[in-house]
Design brief:
Blueprint: E1 10-15, E2 18-23, H1 24-28, H2 35-38, E3 62-66, H3 70-82, H4 93-103, H5 106-113, E4 123-129, E5 138-141, E6 147-151, E7 154-158, E8 168-169, E9 175-182, E10 185-190, E11 201-205, E12 211-215, E13 217-219, E14 222-224, E15 226-234, E16 240-247, E17 253-258, E18 264-269, E19 281-285, E20 290-295, E21 304-309, E22 314-320, E23 335-338, E24 344-348, E25 353-358, E26 369-375, E27 391-394, E28 397-402, E29 405-410, E30 415-421, E31 428-434, E32 437-442, E33 447-452
Parallel strand pairs: 1-3
Antiparallel strand pairs: 1-2, 4-33, 5-6, 6-7, 7-8, 9-10, 10-11, 11-12, 13-14, 15-16, 16-17, 17-18, 19-20, 20-21, 21-22, 23-24, 24-25, 25-26, 27-28, 28-29, 29-30, 31-32, 32-33
Helix pairs in contact: 3-4
Amino acid sequence: MAARSVGGGRVRFNVGGQAFETTTTTLANAGRDSMLGALLDSSWNAPQAPGPGEPATAATTKEYFIDRNPACFAVLLDLLRTGSLHVPPHLPEKLLYREALYYGLLDHVRAARWGAFDGDRLRLASSVPGRAPGDGTAIRAAPDGGCCVAHGGAVHVYNWMLDERRPVSLDHSQVNDVAYLDAGTLLIAARERLGKCDGGMAAFSAVSGDLRHRFRVAHGSEPKSFTAGALAFDAQGAPRIFASCKGRLNEYGVGVWDAATGEQADFFYEPPGVALGDADRLQWLDATGALMVATLFPKTDTCSIGLLDFRAKGVAWAWSDAGTAASLEDKRVLHAIAMDDERSVCVINQYDDLGFLDLRSAPGSGGVRWSSRSKLMNRKATGEESCYPKLATHGGQLFSSMNDSVSVFSGPDHVLTSTLRRSYGGAICDFSIGGDRLFALHNEENVFDVWETPPPPII
């Protein structure tokens, strides 16, 4: 039976000894999933009986005592009244976030804290020092605005408040890729565990770091050890997980698992001339219903990009730089990403060129269209260690890292419109966009930056 709401009226709070009074209409803005919104639900709170001499229909004022921080409660109550977040200078933001989490209002704070994601309006919000020695492998944005950073055999996890949770540590195994299955689950791809058939991919809790499931590959009825490389996820229909896989006996290909059960659903064996087990990047294309597989330089001398159609059990489209890159060393493809409209793939080389491949062309017939208008800001300092560039798309914009900056391209011609850079940290080895934030991992100082879009001004 659906829960009924308590009738209208005023509500009084005593929070840490300070009195507050508001209306049930304001509390309703908190939502039924919040603690304050639950106060209006008759399943939790019986209507207060009228006092002596009061008519039975009188609207009574309810009062609750909450032993929490009153200054934070005042900010959160004002947020529910106005929809705007105003934090006094003396109030630490992390204290406010902690209290918002207690009341179930963290989503409200996040919505007020950020504006709609826009690469041209991003501002540096925070820089977080690393927790592990050595170079970082990858940084991944979580759906809820947190992130994780892979260092060697460990993955360090941060919540939305950028507090570090318990890290995930692999025993003597190198992390090759990491992805969020959802806000609470991490997928980690790593080298096989020698001497065992456990395989190289597992799901862990993003909160506790505990192992939840180990994914296996079986050829016939026998499970096999394998090294997992790049990861991808299809959230449409029956959700699936993809990983590039290398076995010990030339069992190369792309493995497919059911995301709900964790059981192997398929395995696409590597056809002649297409490097699938060594793939650096996988990307599921929703509209096309295919998986983009990119094997890039320097892992292999010949770069190749293909679209796998699992329904037809074949390669629907493919491109390779074989025969051309040897004489054009500056055209080596280092990263690739399918654009949002899924009509083209953007590639980047180790200098400052962006190129585009037309997915509508016949397989093998199209070449790279190098764009003269999409120029990166290459500011490599003398003696600075460089990192291979990376690409990402979000909201119709294209993003690319190059040395110590991230460039933003906008419009149908992908014109450079802004550059994100800070004064120290060295080259950017990886970046990721998610939860309305951009995270950039620097190589030299072992630090990652958090970029956010400020909310629009109040008029």
